[in-house]
C-alpha cells in the first residue's frame, strides 16, 4: 500500500452543549493516497461536514490526529482548498476579484496572480465572465467560480462540502462531469462530502460510508473502475445498490 | 431602545425613488408629482385659514408674505450667510461624530471584549437626548462653536456606532470563514470583507445620523446661538415675525431632504454590485 498522504487517526470530535459534550465524530481512521478521490457519503447528522471542517481547519478535533504529509493540520492553510455548498462568493467583488482574493497571501507577483486567475476561470469554463458580478450568475456558474477559487492556490488537497447539493439535477450532473474532468487534469487529492450515493460512486476511487449518532465510518467501498465513468455503467449501478442497502436497514440512518 | 439592527429607519419610499433615477419614466414623474400632493394641500389649507381669519395673521402669516420674506432673505444674501454657518456646523460635527462612531462601532464589532466593556455605558449615555446634554455642555465648554460641534457630534455618533456594530455582527458567518480559509489579515478582512458586508447597515446609520445631526443643530441654535438658520427662527419669533420662522422651517426641511437624497445617491454608487440577475 502507498504511504498515506492525508491521514486521520482515531479522530474524535464533540461539541460542548449546555447539558454536556455531544459526540459527533467517533474513532475516524482513514488514510488517503496522493491524487486519490475519496467520497464520504452519509445521511444528515453523520458528521461528514464536521469531518471536512476539521480537514480544512475551521474546527479543531477533540482527539486523535489529522496529518497532511506527516504534518499535523492546525488551522487553515492555503495548502487545503475548500468549496462550500453555498458558493460563498462575495457579492461586492467581481468574479475575477473573488478568485483573486484567494491569492491575497500567496507569494506571487501581480502578473502571476492574474495569470493564475485567468487560467482557473478557463478551467471551469468561465473565461468570459471575469468582470461579472456574482448576482449575475446562475447557481451552477457561481459554484464553478467557487471551484476555481478553491483550486487557484494549487492546494495539495481539495475539500468539497456537498458542492452540488443546492443545484438542480441537470446542472448537478453537468458539474459532476466537469469535476471528474478537472480532477483528471489536475491530479489533485480530493475529498468530497455528499449525501448523494450516485455522486459518491461516480466520482470516488473509494467511498467512505458513514453512519450517525455519533458519526462513525461504517465501511469503505473501493470503486475499481477507470475514470471518466459513465453513469449507466453496470458496475456503478450495482455498487450504488449495494451502498444504498446500508441506509435501508434502519429508518434512523436513512438518507436525508 | 435596543441595540439591535435599526434597519427600519430608512424611509422605503426614498429607496424606490433612487432605483428609478437611471430610467426616468412616466411612472417616475408620477411618483415625483405625487410627493407634491400633500404640500399642495397644506398650502391650500394654509391660505384658506388665513383668508377666513381662523388664526390671526400675526401668528400665521399668509403664504405670500412668507414667500416675500424668503425672496428678500435670498436676494440680500442673509439666507446664504446663515445657512452656510449652519451647514458648516453640521459638517464639522458630522465629521467628528461619524469618525468617532465608526471607530467605536467597528472596534466593538471586531472585539467582543471591547463591546462588553463599553456598550452598556454607551447605551446609557445615548439614552439622554441631545437637549438634555446642552445645559451641562454649556457649563463645560461655553456657548461657542465647540458646543455646537459637540452636540451635533454626539447626535451623529450614536446611530453610526450602533449601526456599524449591528452591521458587523450580522455578517454571515460563511463570509468570515472564507476570509479565514484564505488567511486574510485584519486590514485585508476589513477592506475586502467586513466593511463591504456591513456597508448597507453603515449607510442606514449615516443617513439617520445626518437627520439627527441636523435636528441637533437646530436645537442648539435655538438655545445658544447668535447666527445660523436656527437663530434666524429665534430672531423671527422674538420680533413676532412668524414669516421668518416659517422660512426657517422650510429651509431646514428642504436642505435636510437634499442632504439625505445626496447620501442615498452616494450609497447607490457604492453598492453598484447589487444589480439584479439577468
UniProtKB/TrEMBL annotation, chain A:
What molecular function does GO assign, one term? ATP hydrolysis activity
Q: Which residues form the ABC transporter domain?
A: 6-237
Annotated Pfam families: ABC_tran
Identify the domain of life. Answer: Bacteria
**InterPro entries, from UniProt?**
AAA+_ATPase (IPR003593), ABC_transporter-like_ATP-bd (IPR003439), ABC_transporter-like_CS (IPR017871), ABC_transporter_ATP-bind (IPR050166), P-loop_NTPase (IPR027417)
Alphabetically ordered keywords of this record? ATP-binding, Nucleotide-binding, Transport
Q: Can the keyword ATP-binding be found in this entry's annotation?
A: yes
Family, per the entry? Belongs to the ABC transporter superfamily.
Please give the name of this protein.
NitT/TauT family transport system ATP-binding protein/sulfonate transport system ATP-binding protein
Organism name: Azomonas agilis
From TrEMBL, chain B:
Keywords for this protein: Cell membrane, Membrane, Transmembrane, Transmembrane helix, Transport
Gene3D superfamilies from the UniProt entry: MetI-like
Segments passing through the bilayer: 21-46, 90-110, 122-143, 149-168, 244-266
Q: Which PROSITE patterns match?
A: ABC_TM1 (PS50928)
Domain ABC transmembrane type-1: residue ranges: 79-263
One of its GO biological process terms is:
alkanesulfonate transmembrane transport
Which Gene Ontology CC terms are recorded?
plasma membrane
**Membrane topology, from the record:** Multi-pass membrane protein
According to its UniProt record, where is this protein located? Cell membrane
Chief location: membrane
Q: Which SUPFAM superfamilies match?
A: MetI-like (SSF161098)
Family assignment from sequence similarity:
Belongs to the binding-protein-dependent transport system permease family.
Which protein are we looking at?
Sulfonate transport system permease protein
